[in-house]
Amino acid sequence: MIYWIDPDKTTTIGEGRSGEQTSGRVLLIEDDASFAESLRRLLTGQGHDVHHCASGGTGLAVLGQREFDVVLIDLNLPDTHGHDVIRAIRAMEIDAVLIVVSGETEIDAAILALRLGAMDYVRKPLEPEILAHSVRRAIRQRQLMRDNANFQVRLSRSERLHRFLVERSPDIIFILDRDGRINYLNDRPQALLGLDKKQLLNRHFARMVHEHDRERARYAFSPRKLRETARHSVELRLRSALDVPGFRHFEIRLAAVDGVDGDGRDAAGAGELEMYYGVARDITARREVEELATFQANHDILTGLPNRNLFRDHLGLALVQARRNMERLAVLFLNIDRFKPINDLFGHARADELLCRVGERIQRCLRGSDTLARFVGDEFLVLNTGIKTDQEVLAIVARIDQELEAPFHLAGRNVSVTISAGIATFPEHGDSAEALIRHANIALYHGRLKGGRSHTFFMPEMGETTSQRLRLQSELRRAIDQAEFELYFQPQVDLLTRHINGVEALIRWNHPERGLLPPGDFLPLAEEAGLIGEIGEWVTRMVCAKLTAWEGEGIAPARVAINISPHHLDQTDFVERFMALLAERAVEPRRIEVELTENLFIRDPGAVAKKLQALAAHGVMIAIDDFGTQYSSLSYLQKFPIHTLKIDKSFVWEIDREYRQHAIIKAIISIAHGLGLNLIAEGVETDEQLRFLQTQGCDEIQGYLISKPLPAATLESLLRAQRARSVAAVAPQPKD
Ligand code: C2E
Ligand code: CA
Ligand code: CA
């Protein structure tokens, strides 16, 4: 990127048309003098021309005289409120980009500022990198807006271009007469819908509408309705010869045409005709995203199969019916034997592909009335209704075994897959969905102790815990007592500068016999055994100790993220105990970010809200982990004090595939920006993913591409190297 600064005019000019402007004129409206001075220094250091005003009044006066690219506004000013300054700036029709810098942690203040037209909201105390990034983004955006505006001006110069616009518009543009007949139509219906323009002209608009919506169209475009509302819009499905369902979704806006001479008169030049100008915009993609979001709440993204939520629903309904008809049903918990080595050998993308194909083969062995769901990882669930004998259930398992006999071709190799099944039946093994799923799982677990390809019916003597489990639980106890756990840290880096803004603490278990175990191998058990609170506290204590040590050495990252399990958060005195651990080491709360998953919000929103509010009030940052995978309601983002969204890796991994999820990841990014939330994309493994996230304006990334989770010592070397680089950048040149 090349740019130069004209010392007289102090404007920054992009180099050529393709050059990208990254520095500009910044007005700082901020009453805290020392804070303003440090901001000024930071931004000047980045090449920006910074002007400072200490009050809203002087800020507005300066804005009246000079042009700025970006205005940084403090919400708490001595003379007026920042919101009023934003309003005034908007009233003056100044097109500078507004960024609110404020200590108010209220999301309401942020939302109001954004509604009033601020582009971004940066909280105090702030991280210089975050602000610098935000300013750079603002300048880029303004440049885009300018380019766009210039383009519009050029276009409007000639009538020919107008025509061009209408004909080439991505929208269908048409004119209707008073009876709703089409008088004019651009060429879009041909390309968009495969409809012949000639057959539509002089016909009622309803001819373009799909039969499901035709009645509504006749009403919406009836003479009375047209005249009643000078301007209105409707959503309708238009007929399409090109799409499989036979329609596409459109938003249609209508306005009465007035002040048109010549064209507005009839051929004989007699009195003015009533005309209506219409624009139909294809919103099929938006509709599909909405439908996808609903689908996604009930389905597994990878396989497209129902997820465990939908499975529970189906099972619940099936139980009602089975009870009424005195029938039996079976729940099968299926697990692929030795899936982990396949995963390690072929990588997750291929392993995912295999999961999909295994799912397809299992599906072939079931009847239409059965439900197959993906539970998690390599585990599937089958609901089998209307069975009479255990033999019938075993016959299904045998069919699945048979179907899986032919090897799968994966990356040029043959892979053989077998499964094990745990089976629980109603009414023998439980009468609720939860009990049946749990008992099928216990049966599976029992069977697998004997090796793969097992088929095991639940038996009450298996109990809720198996001996294996008991052993693991006692080992976990020992692990807590003898400090067999170790923390790894994974960097979270600024996508543009690659600066390590934060690290996420991830636990490992140095098992004396089994080696280093990942959290997935022991945390679920720790949760069941009620040991998760103790483990969580160990993690927190350890993080505080590390952070203090790093600070002493001057290499601490801005924040450290800790994963908190919902079961741990459930403890009534969670907040007090958590804050006490921070206080032990005098760790500043804002350096700690707790990562929570969305399913928390379904459990007990009231109690969760209180705890999150208390944490946030203490200054602790709150991140939503695996965002988008569990509870797809966005309303809690506004209700709860949330600072960061972590986009789940499954969305990031969809980036390399041509798949519709792109729309979701884009939507997540724009939601996060709209609400002023920090955004971290997880599981970034390829340059392609990185580039896509960069173009979408994502802030931070975490993933193998940058770094795997590292032992503390390795991370510390990285942090030292980073400090050395930044010291070198600001230090005076050494004399030689
Ligand atoms: P998580 O919070 O979603 O953590 C991210 C997981 O993704 C980590 O797995 C990390 O190693 C992995 N990962 C990061 N980047 C990539 C990538 O580019 N590709 C791939 N394939 N994987 C990547 P890990 O360490 O096995 O942790 C698994 C889960 O265990 C975590 O998921 C978290 O939910 C839980 N966990 C880990 N440590 C703790 C802890 O101290 N307390 C609690 N309650 N849960 C923890
Ligand atoms: Ca996490
Ligand atoms: Ca995650």
Task: Explain this structure.
There is one protein chain. With 736 residues, the protein is of the alpha/beta class. The chain folds into four domains: 7-154, Rossmann fold, CATH 3.40.50.2300; 169-288, 2-Layer Sandwich (Beta-Lactamase); 299-458, 2-Layer Sandwich (Alpha-Beta Plaits), CATH 3.30.70.270; 479-715, TIM Barrel, CATH 3.20.20. Strand 14 (371-376) and strand 15 (379-387) form a beta hairpin. The two termini are 31 Å apart. The model is unreliable at 1-19 and 259-271 (pLDDT under 50). It binds ligand C2E and calcium ion (CA) (2 copies).
Shape: globular
Main sheet: which strands, in order across?
Answer: 20-21-23-24-25-26-27-28
Tell me the helix content: 40-55%
User: What about the largest sheet?
Assistant: 8 strands, mixed, barrel
Stretches where pLDDT is under 50 for at least 5 consecutive residues are 1-19, 259-271
Mean pLDDT: 85
CATH class of the largest domain: Alpha Beta
